[in-house]
Amino acid sequence: xxxxxxxxxxxxxxxxxxxxxxxxxxxxxxxxxxxxxxxxxxxxxxxxxxxxxxxxxxxxxxxxxxxxxxxxxxxxxxxxxxxxxxxxxxxxxxxxxxx
Length: 99
Prior knowledge:
The protein is of the alpha+beta class. It has helices at 69-78, 86-91; strands spanning 26-32, 37-42, 57-58, 63-65, 94-96.
């Protein structure tokens, strides 16, 4: 679920921006540079060449249900970002009950 839709970059059109309170499906996880932060790709929104340099949303914009933690870890494994510490990556993501 999106918990922070503030500060939309001008390069990303409003119709390709996340909305606070909306639920989304994470399909890919990576780390982005130079921020070195966890970032995600969503099934519902494609950030294409028109949005360059933006290709992903920072994960800290989203809350993940505790019940989805294992699925997130598996997605991280599938996305080949397990070279970074899990604790460091999950420190960047809000995990809340009841979301």
